[in-house]
């Protein structure tokens, strides 16, 4: 079993979207088969998907640069504040007890700020969610080829490790597709 991570090759546009690609609606009643198709397409077209997501995210960032930056900074700040506050419970309890009005004013100010930048947060989240939606749509409808199946078998037996394979393994989906 190889421990080295290899980047999957970029699949030609002909195979990804144009002449050689075949699309068909998945059988929504057979969730296992549909999940298998998605996972295998994620593994086979992973480099194409990463590039496509980066292009879409960049285009949204170019179209709404201020909103993307403000949304990113707001979410990063909110996460940082949450982690900081959750790590200092005793100090926070003492502060709220000693200065109740300051605590209420801080909450009101944070709520106002979050409502003020909500549009920017929505644009940033759309910049992440839209590429993921397009990837899921493509992976769901793209039929697998023989080349796709052989490449995925190499991933499953451990002859080749890729970033998408490690990601799917980390969330517990790769083993499901291999069985």
Automatic annotation (TrEMBL):
Location within or outside the cell: Membrane
Keywords on record: Membrane, Transmembrane, Transmembrane helix
Family stated for the protein in its record: Belongs to the PRA1 family.
Name the UniProt record assigns to this protein: PRA1 family protein
UniProt key word Glycoprotein: no
Record carries keyword Membrane: yes
GO CC terms of this entry: membrane
Coarse class of the protein's main subcellular location: membrane
Organism the protein comes from: Helobdella robusta
Recorded name of the encoding gene: 20215880
Residues annotated as transmembrane: 42-62, 68-86, 98-115, 121-141
Superkingdom: Eukaryota
SUPFAM superfamilies xrefs: Cytochrome c oxidase subunit I-like (SSF81442)
Recorded topology in the membrane: Multi-pass membrane protein
């Amino acid at each position: 079993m190889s421990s080295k991570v290899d980047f999957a090759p970029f699949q030609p546009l002909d195979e990804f979207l144009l002449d050689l690609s075949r699309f068909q609606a998945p059988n929504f009643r057979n969730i296992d088969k549909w999940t298998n198709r998605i996972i295998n397409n994620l593994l086979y077209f992973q480099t194409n998907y990463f590039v496509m997501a980066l292009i879409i995210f960049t285009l949204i960032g170019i179209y709404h640069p201020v909103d993307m930056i403000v949304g990113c900074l707001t979410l990063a700040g909110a996460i940082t504040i949450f982690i900081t506050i959750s790590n200092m419970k005793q100090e926070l309890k003492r502060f709220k007890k000693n200065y109740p009005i300051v605590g209420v004013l801080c909450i009101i100010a944070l709520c106002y700020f979050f409502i003020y930048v909500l549009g920017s947060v929505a644009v940033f989240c759309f910049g992440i969610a839209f590429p993921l939606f397009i990837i899921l749509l493509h992976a769901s409808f793209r039929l697998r080829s023989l080349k796709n199946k052989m490449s995925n078998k190499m991933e499953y037996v451990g002859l080749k490790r890729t970033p998408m394979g490690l990601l799917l393994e980390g969330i517990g989906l790769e083993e499901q597709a291999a069985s």
